[in-house]
Amino acid sequence: MPLERDTVQSITARREYRLGSLTESEVDPDPIRQFASWFGDAERAELDEPYAMTLATASAEGRPSARIVLLRGVDARGFRFFTNYRSRKGRDLEANPFGSLLFDWHEIERQVRIEGRVERLADEESDAYFRQRPTETKLGAWASDQSAVVSDRRILEARFQEAADRFGEDVPRPPHWGGYLLVPDEFEFWQGRPGRLHDRIRYVPGARGWTIERLSP
Question: Is 120 a catalytic residue?
Fold first, then answer.
């Protein structure tokens, strides 16, 4: 399809990154602790939703897709998020249980990328998180057949009302909705630097814990 005459065909805008640096000697030997430190910096900088992350998955055929989800917990086991198991990402993970997370904190000129195997959380963990959600979002989990085609928004609203009439304030977790845990096997911490000579520090499994190495920008 030809581009319209007023379509922007070349984008040259750029910014210089000058807020910080990152060296192999200053990062924590444990990437989870390093993530926690940077996440704390993002919170203190009052970024808008620092827990928002891009989740990339791929189908059994290798076709990739990505979307923004919310981090809902991190510890030594890995990174937690919740969704509809029947959504596109849920179907991807059923067929190809690996994913990649990306945190883009561009206001402080940092990114964190995490890769690993993804597994479902136990029902007890999903139930505990679901109980904390607002009632409206609980009802939405029943109303939406996530990623399926819906012909009219009024159908969603009718399903929402049906769920509200059925459950009232005591909304149980739908069997098709729950949590996932990404168990990391690679981390990359990116710090913007002048001249595009960015600092990229990667953690990969080694013989005695994590191996830390620098990547070319």
Answer: no
Q: Is residue 75 part of a domain?
A: yes
**CATH number for the domain harbouring residue 120:** 2.30.110.10
Beta strands in 39-176 (DSSP E): 52-58, 64-70, 73-75, 78-84, 98-105, 110-120
Catalytic residue among 63, 196, 202, 208: 196
Q: What is the mean pLDDT of residues 133-150?
A: 94
Question: 62 pLDDT exceeds 80?
Answer: yes
Helix axes 135-143, 153-167, angle to 10 degrees: 120
Decide if 149 is inside a domain.
no
Q: Residue 92 burial (CB < 10 Å; 0-12/13-18/19+)?
A: buried
In a domain, 16, yes or no: no
How large is the average pLDDT for residues 57-71?
A: 98
Using a cut of 0.85, tell me whether the model's pTM lies above it.
yes
Nearest to 99 by CA among 183, 212, 207: 183
Q: Is residue 176 classed exposed, middle or buried when 0-12, 13-18 and 19+ CB atoms within 10 A define those classes?
A: middle
Say whether pLDDT at 79 is over 90: yes
